[in-house]
Amino acid sequence: MQDQQSARLLGPAEVRRLAEDLGMRPTKKLGQNFVHDPNTVRRIVATSGVTAEDVVLEVGPGLGSLTLGLLSTAQAVTAVEVDAALAATLPRTVAERAPALVDRLRTVEADALSLRERDLADRAPTALVANLPYNVAVPVVLHLLAEFPTLRHGLVMVQAEVADRMAAKPGSRTYGVPSAKAAWFADVRREGPVPRGVFWPVPNVDSGLVSFTRTEPPSTVAREQVFRVLDAAFAQRRKTLRSALSKWAGSAARAETLLRAAGVPPSSRGEQLAVSDFVRIAEAARDIPDDSESSGAR
Ligand SMILES: C[S@@+](CC[C@H](N)C(=O)[O-])C[C@H]1O[C@@H](n2cnc3c(N)ncnc32)[C@H](O)[C@@H]1O
């Protein structure tokens, strides 16, 4: 007999049937690849570290595959879905397959990229767990970490290459803007791979898991200031920092001064720097006045 607190997860036949009932054709634009493998759902929930204390924010619940798994473990799940038909069907699916848990679910029809802290103020999320739409995975994670300081930890499933990039460390081939910005917010770790066969429809790329644990902001300088340095450094990643940062700093000479003050060799490149280095450069820019500005030279 089924345990009251557990949900009946969706297998291949149920995923197809739900989609058919909705008359839906999954779209690439919204990254609609649905998990139809209960073992993958159990693995994601277990790896996420979600406990009965957590209020989970799930982006893109789709047909409910992962939502059902999360509801058995979390205190509550807020599921944010942009597709109106999917958002409308989710509560029904949960009521059918996990009647004892339906009160834990709140469904919000919205674009995760426009979600604001005040929208969920009465039930602040503590964990982000999601099988993210491929094309907006990085912006969604960065937006939610910035907007919801209560998010302490999480696990997301994304395209394998994106997972590598998000968790990459300085000096590695895949290190770039997503890695450095994610590191501002959290300790980010690459977890295991996910084969494409667990999805319907089957995507043409493999997926991977990335976990994160929130850390204290590494700086007294505003995040936006640090991200401006970082964006400038990676916009021309083959150039030395002296050259790549010259426009941002006002001149190549000032870029060099700021880099030296931050203890960063001007001949190095952005891909070699940790987020703490970008912080020191932004701090130098705050502390060292731009002479050309005061003399009216620019
Ligand atoms: C990869 S599917 C995952 C579905 C489900 N969680 C699963 O594992 O089977 C991505 C889901 O995100 C939804 N989605 C796409 N863009 C979104 C956005 N900007 N905000 C919220 N949901 C979005 C899609 O409609 C789809 O349901």
Automatic annotation (TrEMBL):
InterPro entries: KsgA/Erm, rRNA_Ade_diMease-like_C, rRNA_Ade_Mease_Trfase_CS, rRNA_Ade_methylase_Trfase_N, rRNA_adenine_dimethylase, SAM-dependent_MTases_sf
Listed Pfam families: RrnaAD
Keyword Amino-acid biosynthesis applies: no
GO cellular component: cytosol
Gene3D superfamilies the UniProt entry points to: Ribosomal RNA adenine dimethylase-like, domain 2, Vaccinia Virus protein VP39
Similarity remark: Belongs to the class I-like SAM-binding methyltransferase superfamily. rRNA adenine N(6)-methyltransferase family. RsmA subfamily.
Catalytic reaction list: adenosine(1518)/adenosine(1519) in 16S rRNA + 4 S-adenosyl-L-methionine = N(6)-dimethyladenosine(1518)/N(6)-dimethyladenosine(1519) in 16S rRNA + 4 S-adenosyl-L-homocysteine + 4 H(+)
Subcellular location, principal: cytoplasm
Catalytic activity, EC: 2.1.1.182
Organism per entry: Haloactinomyces albus
Residues that, per the record, bind S-adenosyl-L-methionine: N33, V35, G60, E81, D111, N131
HAMAP family: 16SrRNA_methyltr_A
Gene for this chain: rsmA
Alphabetical UniProt keywords: Cytoplasm, Methyltransferase, RNA-binding, rRNA processing, S-adenosyl-L-methionine, Transferase
Known role: Specifically dimethylates two adjacent adenosines (A1518 and A1519) in the loop of a conserved hairpin near the 3'-end of 16S rRNA in the 30S particle. May play a critical role in biogenesis of 30S subunits.
Protein name: Ribosomal RNA small subunit methyltransferase A
Lineage: Bacteria, Bacillati, Actinomycetota, Actinomycetes, Actinopolysporales
Domain Ribosomal RNA adenine methylase transferase N-terminal: 40-216
Subcellular location field: Cytoplasm
